[in-house]
């Protein structure tokens, strides 16, 4: 009888000591910073509080997984939004306008020294300073080249590309046939030359929203540097191209 009591007390004591001794998972839960985890795995016997904390934690984890899956699916759909806001302005700052003739140089202004130094660059002469394929040239152009390209006993002079561009390049005074801005007539003097035939200006930088800039230019097809015969179709195409470039530039200016 005494032996049974001792054995019963010993077994009960061992159970209490084992329940009071924390497991490694309980020790981790007590030291974890995850909210509620230490209440789910407390020391001692299970309780209603432990069940409620476990349900709350599982619900939060479920919502987190659901929201993460929804956001991931949204990201993988590659959504994009295009927003265009149209704003009407009564006045716009007049931008800089650049005018450059597509025909870079005037054939009639070429000299013998120009042909000697830049004839090959202009594709008027070959590497031997002779006229390539003269049968393709117009008679007057061929006669001009034969006269200017005669380098027999010729002593070349110093050549400056900057001086060549300024002298042979197109002059805005000759190119501009008509100019009007904000109801006011303008001329070549309202534009400033920056380099060669490039022109930039804007009549003092006033706004140019309502009354646009209107230009009428001569593309100077007849004086372009080319020894090949230009047909009427080619000349018309060059004129239309220049006109389209001017119109496109003005439309871009208006859109700004």
From TrEMBL:
It holds the Pfam family ASC. It is found in: Membrane. The keyword Transport applies. GO terms for molecular function: ligand-gated sodium channel activity. Keywords: Ion channel, Ion transport, Membrane, Sodium, Sodium channel, Sodium transport, Transmembrane, Transmembrane helix, Transport. The keyword Transmembrane applies. InterPro entries: ENaC (IPR001873). It is a multi-pass membrane protein. GO terms for cellular component: plasma membrane. It comes from the Eukaryota. Its main location: membrane. Belongs to the amiloride-sensitive sodium channel (TC 1.A.6) family. This is Acid-sensing ion channel 2. It comes from Collichthys lucidus. The lineage of its organism: Eukaryota, Metazoa, Chordata, Craniata, Vertebrata.
């Amino acid at each position: 009888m005494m032996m049974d009591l001792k054995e019963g007390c010993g077994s009960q004591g061992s159970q209490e000591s084992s329940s009071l001794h924390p497991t490694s998972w309980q020790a981790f839960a007590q030291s974890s910073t995850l909210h509620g985890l230490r209440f789910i795995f407390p020391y001692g016997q299970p309780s209603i509080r432990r069940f409620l904390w476990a349900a709350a934690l599982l619900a939060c984890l479920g919502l987190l997984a659901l929201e993460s899956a929804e956001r991931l699916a949204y990201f993988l759909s590659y959504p994009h939004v295009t927003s265009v806001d149209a704003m009407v302005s009564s006045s716009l700052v007049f931008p800089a306008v650049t005018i450059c003739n597509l025909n870079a140089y005037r054939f009639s202004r070429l000299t013998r020294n120009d042909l000697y130094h830049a004839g090959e660059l202009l594709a008027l002469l070959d590497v031997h300073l002779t006229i390539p394929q003269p049968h393709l040239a117009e008679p007057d152009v061929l006669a001009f080249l034969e006269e200017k390209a005669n380098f027999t006993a010729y002593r070349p002079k110093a050549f400056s590309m900057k001086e060549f561009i300024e002298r042979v390049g197109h002059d805005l005074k000759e190119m501009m046939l008509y100019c009007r801005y904000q109801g006011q007539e303008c001329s070549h003097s309202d534009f400033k030359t920056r380099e060669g035939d490039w022109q930039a200006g804007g009549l003092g930088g006033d706004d140019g929203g309502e009354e646009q800039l209107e230009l009428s230019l001569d593309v100077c097809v007849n004086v372009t540097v080319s020894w090949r015969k230009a047909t009427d179709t080619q000349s018309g195409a060059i004129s239309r191209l220049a006109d389209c470039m001017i119109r496109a530039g003005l439309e871009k200016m208006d859109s700004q």
